[in-house]
Design goal:
With 787 residues, the chain is mainly β. It folds into 2 domains: 2-245 and 320-579 and 617-624, Maltoporin, Chain A; 246-279 and 282-315, no CATH class. It has a 22-stranded antiparallel barrel. It has a 5-stranded mixed β-sheet with strand order 1-6-7-4-5.
Length: 787
């Protein structure tokens, strides 16, 4: 019923429009109107990278998540938990994590309203649905949804084909990874309608143990072309059931440290056979009598699978998520200068993960247990299921006026969110405890909370062209936010009568005004620009729940100054962007722990990121080109107090005047060699990422070393002059990844502590590192048939 009402509303909007001649160019313009509100206007003074449809189509055959394609642009770092790039993946832009990257799909915000991030875990197939992607670095132009504190990514679905088309593709490669896809278009029916659709699926055994998974997406669209307007309905869904490895390969555990066995770096990890070890799936054999980890004849540590009390093996920790987007949009043009777009959207999401928790304390779940003999039982094995539901709905509108001098866009975004969080114990190894807390096999709910968020914003941006070569740009956005969450959280505190949930009763609202301005100069292939932007961002859910005894979280603020120069002609192009991003009240982990051991975050007064992003390309010959980009940066906290866990008593407080921000490599390089002749293309890509510190203390012992790896992509397109069984074109592809078999970790985490009694000083801390390893050499071949 809801969809019928939305469709009727859109048709009503379109019915009163002045009739105009329908042609292909006019409808291409209308397709651009859909994303004009969230993308930079022509000649705007910002650092952007654009990815075209051909690149997206080629990448879609790899089964890898989109961050791995985005990482080929300046300043972007990507990694995947299973080591292959399929399944759960993540990214950073200029060192800023996913919650600081605004992502939209056809102008509709994709970021989870509470966590403010996009979980790239079941969107590997989106590349096949897209017509273009624009990545803005820094604050960029105003967009819908959460604030962009590192960058923004605008995804635009491909325009429907007006000619009948059908395509099927299949890929297969290392670790039993396959990707299969099909898409079609009916072409233009009755000179008005196009029905198109797609389905894509990826499955893999995973490089890291226990990360087998299956994920995919589907799309169905119906487009009506009118005289000067179009109406389009899109249903886009994605799903996944993937084995998880968020802990990485842990160099240490609760009983003894692998550091004592010589595991101190990711290279040691590989040399001892731990490159694929997953503590969410398996344990390491430990000889408590000899206080060591037994090794086989090859020096590899012995592992074992977790067992349930009936003797069966625990399968794996899985993340299960389903999401469905509904977008109904109408675009129309009135006269030569005006165009409009309105969209109504609704997204439903449901997901959970199921995890085996070996030898956990009952207090972890707020429980106390005594057996039938009155003995206090401290620990048992558990299986917990944590999940959420999400409902996001709203409306987006933008209007564009364009003539020889002016390019003006104004827009509104109205979005509401309803969500719920829940957790159950579905298994307790101790039979007495299981019977008590899970009578008759009924799962025990140990937390439950609800959330609501309103996000309303409006913006006005204008570009004015004057004196032949100059443009001035101004952009003003207002955001109103209201966030409430209540109920029982999945954290527990000890009281005189036992354990009690952390109770949530958060009700906050924010008003943000975000101005931006800039100037650009363009002449004969030269472009120079300068801009200044200011933005504010609300706290995430975790900033409220994990701030412990720190003051209540306050919004982050950012001032971003950008200077750039670019030159391009038919033979070569080059560019540089200089930026200074000055943060106020940025959220960081301080090293302090809550009463229940959770990492605490708080606002820090001053921090900054500054750097240079360079790009260049040279068309050496008609069949051969060279290209590269570099991101060089300094990322600092001006005044920071770290709290170090002290096993002997109170936490140790360490002050830093100018420490490096964690997970912020100072250098990211990409180099490309492209050879292409007729239907053949070969691309060599080498990537380099410098050292990443895992905390804010700038200590090399608690860091990931630099790494470099190289990929080669080959493809050949065979056009058939005479159709064979209806086939017009065949594309053969081969992806060779990490061809030099480099062993490296792209991300990770660290825990450190001091203890004078145990000989661990601040200069020689005890620490555990979780490495997120990436696979060595892998390959995948693919074939695509186009009809």
């Amino acid at each position: 019923m809801k969809k019928v009402v939305l469709l009727a509303a859109a048709i009503t909007c379109a019915s009163g429009l002045k009739a105009q001649t329908t042609d292909t160019l006019a409808n291409q313009k209308l397709d651009e109107v859909v994303v004009s509100g969230v993308r930079v206007q022509k000649n705007a003074p910002y650092a952007v990278a654009n990815i075209k449809k051909a690149e997206l189509e080629a990448f879609s055959k790899s089964g890898r998540e989109l961050p791995f394609l985005f990482s080929q642009t300046p300043g972007v770092l990507a990694w995947g938990e299973n080591g292959l790039g399929t399944g759960t993946a993540a990214m950073r832009i200029r060192g800023a994590a996913g919650s600081r990257i605004n992502v939209t799909l056809d102008g509709v915000a994709l970021n989870s309203p509470e966590d403010q991030t996009v979980f790239w875990a079941n969107m590997n197939s989106y590349a096949s649905l897209l017509g273009s992607v624009q990545i803005q670095r820094g604050i960029g132009t105003s967009t819908n949804g959460d604030g962009a504190f590192g960058g923004s990514i605008s995804l635009a679905t491909a325009a429907p084909s007006r000619k009948p088309a059908f395509e099927v593709s299949g890929s297969y490669g290392s670790y039993n990874t396959y990707n299969a896809g099909v898409k079609f278009s009916t072409g233009l029916l009755w000179n008005r309608l196009v029905l198109d659709g797609a389905y894509n699926e990826t499955s893999t055994d995973g490089y890291v143990h226990g990360t087998q998974g299956r994920s995919g997406s589907y799309y169905g669209g119906l487009t009506y072309f009118g005289d000067g307007f179009q109406i389009r309905y899109k249903n886009i869904g994605n799903f996944e059931k993937t084995g998880q490895a968020w802990n990485g390969v842990v160099a240490g555990n609760d009983d003894a440290s692998l550091m004592d066995a010589g595991i101190k770096t990711y290279k040691d990890m590989y040399s001892h056979g731990l490159g694929r070890f997953n503590p969410l799936y398996e344990g390491i054999v430990f000889d408590s009598d000899n206080w060591k980890f037994p090794q086989d004849a090859n020096g590899n540590y012995q592992t074992y699978r977790y067992k349930l009390k009936d003797g069966s093996l625990w399968d794996k920790t899985t993340d299960n998520f389903y999401q469905n987007h509904n977008i109904l949009s109408a675009s129309w043009a009135r006269g030569e200068h005006w165009s409009h777009n309105v969209a109504l959207h609704y997204t439903y999401g449901f997901g959970y993960y199921s995890e085996f928790r070996p030898n956990n304390k009952f207090s972890k779940f707020g429980l106390s247990f005594y057996d039938k003999d009155g003995n206090f039982v401290k620990r048992s094995d558990f299986v917990r299921m944590k999940g959420l539901t999400q409902h996001t709905y709203g409306a987006v509108y933008n209007v564009n006026y364009k003539d020889e001098k002016w390019d003006v866009v104004a827009g509104l975004n109205l979005q509401q969110f309803r969500g719920g969080h829940f957790g159950y114990l579905t298994y307790i190894e101790n039979s007495e405890a299981d019977a008590k807390f899970r009578p008759n096999g009924t799962d025990y709910k140990y937390y439950d909370s609800d959330a609501r968020k309103y996000d309303y914003s409006g913006y006005f941006k204008a570009n004015y062209h004057f004196a032949d070569y100059w443009n001035v740009f101004a952009d003003l956005q207002y955001r109103f936010l209201d966030y409430k969450t209540d109920g029982k959280n999945d954290k527990f505190y000890e009281t005189a009568s036992g354990y009690a949930n952390q109770m949530l009763n958060i009700s906050e609202h924010y008003d943000f005004v975000n101005p931006k301005a800039g100037v650009s100069f363009l002449k004969d292939g030269h472009k120079a620009y300068a801009s200044i932007a200011y933005a504010s961002r609300e706290p995430e859910r975790n900033n409220f729940t994990d701030n412990g005894n720190y003051p209540a979280p306050t919004p982050e603020r950012l001032m971003d100054i950008e200077l750039g120069y670019q030159f391009a002609n038919h033979k070569w192009h080059a560019g540089v962007d200089l930026y200074f991003m000055n943060y106020s009240n940025q959220f960081v982990q301080t090293g302090a722990k809550s009463d229940i051991g959770e990492n605490l975050t708080t606002n820090i007064a001053e921090s900054y990121r500054m750097g240079a992003e360079l790009s260049a390309g040279w068309n050496v010959a008609s069949w051969f080109s060279l290209e590269g980009n570099a991101a060089l940066s300094v990322n600092k906290i001006k005044d920071f107090d770290e709290f170090v866990d002290n096993w002997d008593g109170e936490s140790l407080k360490i002050h830093y005047d100018n420490s490096t921000l964690a997970f912020s490599p100072s250098t990211i390089l990409n180099g490309f060699v492209n050879a292409h002749y007729k239907g053949f293309q070969a691309v060599w890509h080498t990537n380099f990422v410098s050292r990443q510190y895992l905390d804010n203390s700038e200590n090399k012992d608690r860091s990931l070393p630099s790494f470099s790896q190289t990929n080669i992509n080959l493809n050949y397109t065979l056009g058939l002059n005479r159709k064979f069984a209806g086939v017009k074109e065949v594309v053969f592809g081969l992806n060779l990844n990490n061809i030099f078999n480099r062993h490296y970790a792209a991300s990770g985490w660290v825990y450190s502590a001091v203890s004078q009694k145990s000989g661990y000083t601040n200069d020689n801390r005890y620490y555990q590192i979780g490495f997120i390893p990436m696979a060595g050499f892998t390959m995948m071949g693919n074939v695509t048939l186009r009809f």
